[in-house]
Amino acid sequence: MKTKRLVSIILTGIIVILTCDRLPDEQESNKLNLTKKSLELIESDNEFGLEFFREVINNDTSDNIMVSPLSVALALGMTYNGADGSTKEAMKETLKLSGLSDEEINTAYKSIIDQLLKLDPKVVLSIANSIWYRLNFTVLPEFIDLNKIYYDAEVNELDFSLPDAKDIINEWVDEKTKGLIPEIIDYIPAEAVMYLINAIYFKGLWKYEFDPEATSEQPFYLTNDQTEVVDMMEMECDLMYMSNELFSAVKLPYGDGAFSMTILLPHSQYTPDNIVEELSNENWNTWMNSFSNEHVVVKLPKFKFKFFRLLNQDLKDMGMSIAFDPFNADFGGINPDEKLYISRVLHKTFIDVSEEGTEAAAVTAVEISFTSIDPSPPTATFFVVERPFIFSIQENSSGTILFMGKVNRPKYEE
After folding, report:
1. Angle at 123 between CA 155 and CA 45, to 5 degrees
2. Rounded to an integer, what distance in angstroms lies between the CA atom of residue 218 and that of residue 216?
3. How far is it, in rounded angstroms, from Cα 19 to Cα 208?
4. Chain-centroid distance, C-alpha 7
5. Quick one: 126 exposed, middle or buried, by C-beta within 10 A (0-12, 13-18, 19+)?
6. Backbone dihedral region of 51: left (phi > 0), alpha (psi from -120 to 50 degrees) or beta?
7. Rounded to the nearest 5 degrees, what angle is found at the Cα of 81, between the Cα atoms of 78 and 82?
8. What are phi and psi for residue 19, nearest 5 degrees?
9. CA–CA separation, 365 and 139 (whole Å)
C-alpha cells in the first residue's frame, strides 16, 4: 500500500512538473503590436474602466458584480461619433480620451479590436457591434460609415412598432454571446430611435487546469463570523504572484498565455471595498508590474453568475450628465434635425469559472431617444480564496481589461 501511494505521489509530481514547468510570460509570443496612439487609447480605456468599476461598486449592493469596461467603452465610442459640442466634450472627458483626435480614437479602436480577435488561437474571443434605428428615421451617412469602417458595426433599419422588434434585436445579442445573454432590450419606448450595441464573448481554457478530483467542499468566509460551503478548486503550479500591505494576487493564464485572470485577495483585515478605494490607473499599473515567479498552491472557489445594471446614474456621476439631458444633449452627428439624447445605457454580463477555464460575456446597449414635450421615463426598474475578492480578465501584453468583478458570495448558479 505504501509503495502504491509513493508511486502515486511521484506521478503527481511529474505531472505538475510537466504542466507547470514554465511561466506564462516565458511562452507569450503573441503580443499586440501597438502604435503610440493605440497605447494611449488603452491607457485611457483602463483609466475609464477602473473609475467606472469603482462607481458601480460604490452604487450597487449586489452580492456579485461584474462589468466589462471594454464593452461599455466600445458602445459609447460608437455613440461618441454622433455627438457634437459640449456633449462630445463631456463624453470625451468621461471616457478619458482627451488628447486624442476623433480619427486617432477610431483608428486605434479598430487596430486593437482586430488584433485582440486573432491573438490567441486557444482562446475564443468575439467582439461584435450593431446599430439598429427606427424605420424612416434619418441617420447621417457619415455616422453610419464611421461605425461600419472602424467598429465593423452591422447596421439595420427596423420598425420599432412591431410586436417582435425587441426580439429581433435580442436574437442578435443571443447569437453573439452564444446564448449566455439571451436579451438586453426589455421594451422599446415610443421615443426610442436607435440602439447602439456591443457584445463580447470570451471562452478560455486554463493554461494549467484545475483537477476536478481535487475540488472539494470547503468553507468560504463571507464575514469574520459567517461562512458558506463552496466547491473549492485546487492546483499547485509556478505562477505570477505578488503581495503588498493590502492584498495578495495571482495571475491564472489561459490558452497560450495571451490572456489571464488576475485574482486580488484582500488580507484578512481588509475587504474588496478597501481595494476598490485604492483603484486608480497609477496604482493598477504599479500592482500589475509587481508580479514575479512563485510556486503557488491556489485554492479558488468555482463561481457562476449574471449581472445587470442600468448605467445612467453611474455615467452621469462620471461627468456625462449632458448626454442624458433631453433638452441639452447634442447628437447632431446622428441627425441634426432631431433633438436626441441618451435615454438608457443597459449593461449585462455573465461569467462561469470552473476547473476547465472561464466562459464570459457582456452586452452594452445605448438607447437614443428623441425629446418629446413630456418625455416618458423608463417604466421598468431592474433591481485559498475563502473570502470576498476582486477579479479581472485582461490581455497581458497591453493590459487591456476585458472584464472586472467583485465576488462576495461565490454560488455556482445553474
Report:
1. 60
2. 6
3. 6
4. 44
5. middle
6. alpha
7. 105
8. -95, -20
9. 18
**CA separation (Å) from 36 to 5, 73, 104, 156, 289?**
56, 19, 10, 34, 20
Q: Give the strand pairing for 154-158 and 123-134.
A: parallel
143: left (phi over 0), alpha (psi -120 to 50) or beta: alpha
C-alpha cell, 138: 434619418
Assigned C-alpha cell, 145: 460609415
Each residue's pLDDT, cut to its tens digit, for the chain (414 residues) gives 434 333 333 334 433 433 465 444 444 457 888 889 988 999 999 999 999 999 999 999 889 999 999 999 999 999 999 999 999 999 999 999 998 999 999 999 999 999 999 899 999 999 999 999 999 999 999 999 999 999 999 999 999 999 999 999 999 999 999 999 999 999 999 999 999 999 999 999 999 999 999 999 999 988 877 889 999 999 988 999 999 999 999 999 999 999 999 999 999 899 999 999 999 999 999 999 999 989 999 999 999 999 999 999 999 999 999 999 999 999 999 999 899 999 999 999 999 999 999 999 999 999 999 886 444 444 332 326 777 877 888 888 778 888 888 888 887 655
- Asked whether the beta carbons of 280 and 50 are under 8 A apart, the reply is yes
Q: Is the CB of residue 195 less than 8 Å from the CB of residue 366?
A: yes
Give the chain's domains with CATH numbers. Answer: 36-204+304-370 (3.30.497.10), 207-301+385-407 (2.30.39.10)
Beta-bridged to residue 289, according to DSSP, are none
Residues 6 or more apart from 12 whose CB is under 8 A from it? none
* d(C-alpha 244, C-alpha 297), whole Å: 18
Dihedral angle over CA of 310, 61, 320, 335, nearest 10: 0
What is the SS3 assignment for 407? strand
